[in-house]
Write a structure and sequence with these properties.
CATH topology of one domain in chain B: Cytochrome Bc1 Complex, Chain C
Largest interface: A-B, 95 and 104 residues
Number of strands of chain A: 3
Largest sheet of chain A: 2 strands, antiparallel
Strand order of the largest sheet of chain A: 2-3
Order of helices and strands of chain B: HHHEHHHHHHEEHH
Distance between the termini of chain B: 64 Å
Strand content of chain B: under 5%
Structural class of chain B: mainly alpha
Strand content of chain A: under 5%
Oligomer: heterodimer
Radius of gyration of chain B: 25 Å
Strand order of the largest sheet of chain B: 2-3
Helix content of chain A: 55-70%
């Protein structure tokens, strides 16, 4: 058991954990041979495995301490719910895909022309839903007390200090980006991107029923953003970030004195000092010219190249403006994993570092 | 002499003038009266009279949107009860929260409010996931998807503003961490890119005493000004906006063709 715990803690460091999650995500959605995971049997198996892991984990004092913090209990529930409903939507989607392949309409179509009365059929479901939720909330509230800590004290900063749990994905981005990107720009772009979604989605298919085959790229993009970059980042920020925002495995003791070497280095330092072997130039524009070129190329050249190659059909279908918005949003989203790997592989701190104007990327 | 069959109490009630003044249709045992039950009730008429059978399947909707709305109502009712006892000042806030549990009858209102809030955040995410996975944001529902995104943001802001109110270490520092981000807003935060460019001579226009974070917190740090500001936003400001947007959201569900289904 100690060996198992040590193995889990060993896997749980950002590069390995996130690489595993990225790989698992694409394998689960794209590799047809493992599509048996989207069957009810596999769902029960995975749920049982998940529950067994949590149950086993609770016997460990460190795991127990972090999981049973009152505000963390709903997050465990959220993880299972998001997992279950992601599974359900894929299960129903693949089922419809098989029907489509056999020239049958989606399941929803069989009943979509039938209209039934709201009274009693819908109000009855709503009533049941309300009763169930009321009972659940009352029982939950009796058995789990809302957290209350010491009175607010501006002179005593807790370690770690964390945002409310639903913003911990954003706080986790702070590890890789400065606050103006992680806390302002990217959250803003998430909202803008979600709102733009219906206008930049060129696919007319899959309106009003579950499907995967007809909307593969949309679902992959959305679920990558939601499951990996939002939910997984929240899980990381909640359960794995301890004192000094250091990363801890689930069975690891939150040691305030854990030492993590800070060896991050800016791109400009790598180029001027390590490659050219001269000091950093005084002028920030000269100093950061390489990083600025790189970022500009990323946002200006990549869309052009993609428009002629991989995204050619999108470009032709959508027109210039919509295509540019789509690719800009995608590039912003992908910039997070890119920055993560730059950090893990090269200790990259900032690609563009202009602290004079608080402009670091 | 044969006795007239005994009428049940409910049947007698149904014949009374009071009942008939409220419900102006007969018992809902035929299509006409069932339609009237929805049409003549201000709350029920959020629904159409008839809906797609496919749209009623729990498998299809997960009842996630309905759950979110129900939890909003739970939050409204429990929040109103909490407002009777809670005073949003730095002297009283913390001890009022303690008293809510130990001194107030039915001392689980704060628990219901807090867990309901967490559940609402999760429910609104699941609702978004369902709407996305069924492609229900596609024409003609683009605009309503936008309203939904705004409602999702408002849900998070409601939860965030409420997070400060217990006025304990958890609350104060979570909001400190969250609101520190505002300091980095481009041009509007004193540590944001571009803010240093906004100055007249030597006088900088954006500094810690007038930037975006200051506007949010009514001060340079999380203090009693922030507590009052968050309280007003939490109890009045954001719920009002959310209620208006919810009205639009529900209205548009109907006007855009009801719960989505294959075309």
């Amino acid at each position: 058991m100690q060996g198992f715990k040590a193995a889990v803690d060993g896997i749980c460091n950002p590069p390995i954990l996130f690489s595993l999650i990225f790989a698992l995500f694409f394998v689960a959605f794209l590799w047809k041979r493992v599509h048996w995971i989207w069957t009810p049997k596999a769902c029960i198996l995975l749920l049982t495995a998940g529950l067994a892991f949590v149950g086993f984990g609770l016997t460990d004092p460190n795991f127990h301490a972090i999981l049973t913090k009152p505000d963390n209990v709903p997050i465990v529930g959220m993880l299972f719910l998001v997992g279950f409903f992601s599974w359900l939507s894929m299960y129903l989607g693949l089922k419809n895909d098989r029907r489509t392949a056999a020239n049958l309409p989606p399941v929803e179509k069989l009943e979509s022309e039938i209209k039934i009365l709201v009274w009693p059929d819908l109000v009855y479901t709503e009533m049941l839903c309300m009763i169930l939720w009321s009972v659940l909330l009352i029982v939950w509230s009796i058995y789990l007390k809302a957290p209350i800590e010491e009175p607010a004290n501006p002179a005593k900063t807790p370690n770690p200090s964390k945002a409310p749990w639903y913003f911990l994905g954003l706080q986790e981005m702070l590890v890789y980006y400065d606050p103006w990107i992680a806390g302002v720009l990217l959250p803003g772009l998430i909202i803008v991107g979600l709102m733009a979604l219906p206008y930049i989605d060129p696919n007319k298919k899959g309106n009003g029923y579950f499907t995967f085959a007809e909307r593969k790229w949309e679902i992959l993009t959305f679920q990558f953003g939601f499951l990996v970059l939002w939910v997984m980042m929240i899980i990381t920020g909640t359960f794995f970030r301890g004192p000094n925002q250091n990363f801890f495995g689930p069975f690891e003791h939150w040691d305030v004195h854990k030492l993590v070497p800070l060896s991050n280095i800016n791109l400009s330092e790598v180029i001027w000092v390590r490659v050219f072997n001269v000091g950093l130039p005084q002028n920030w524009l000269v100093r950061e010219s390489f990083g600025i070129t790189l970022v500009l190329a990323y946002f200006l050249l990549v869309p052009m190249v993609l428009g002629r190659t991989l995204f050619k059909s999108f470009f032709e279908k959508m027109g210039m403006v919509r295509y540019q918005i789509l690719v800009f949003l995608l590039l912003c989203m992908v910039s997070l994993p890119i920055k993560m790997y730059l950090r893990w592989l090269f200790n990259m701190h900032y690609v563009v570092a202009i602290p004079e104007y608080f402009f670091n990327i | 002499m044969a006795e007239a069959p005994k009428k049940s109490l409910f049947a007698l009630l149904r014949e009374s003038q009071v009942w008939n003044s409220i419900f102006r249709h007969g018992p809902p045992d035929n299509t006409r009266n069932r339609s009237l039950a929805v049409l003549t009730n201000v709350f029920l008429h959020l629904h159409p009279v008839k809906v797609r059978k496919s749209g009623l399947r729990l498998k299809y909707t997960w009842c996630a949107g309905g759950t979110t709305f129900f939890l909003f109502l739970v939050e409204t009712v429990t929040g109103l009860l909490l407002m009777f006892y809670y005073r949003p000042t730095s002297e009283y806030a913390f001890s009022d929260i303690l008293d809510l549990r130990s001194q107030v009858p039915l001392g689980i209102m704060r628990e219901i409010h807090r867990w309901g809030a967490h559940a609402m955040v999760i429910a609104v995410w699941l609702h978004m996931l369902r709407v996305f996975m069924t492609g229900s944001y596609k024409p003609p529902r683009e605009f309503n998807w936008n309203i939904g995104v705004l409602l999702l943001v408002l849900t998070l802001l409601l939860s965030f503003t409420g997070y400060l109110l217990p006025w304990d270490q958890l609350a104060m520092w979570a909001v400190t961490v969250g609101s520190n981000m505002a300091r980095a807003t481009p041009f509007l935060g004193n540590e944001g890119p571009g803010a240093a460019l906004l100055k007249v001579g030597d006088i900088s226009l954006v500094h810690a005493g007038d930037d975006a974070r200051f506007a949010l917190l009514a001060g340079r740090f999380v203090g009693s000004g922030a507590l009052l500001r968050f309280y007003v936003l939490h109890c009045v400001g954001i719920p009002l906006v959310a209620a208006v947007l919810m009205a639009v959201h529900f209205w548009r569900v109907r006007k855009d063709g009801g719960i989505s289904g294959p075309l």
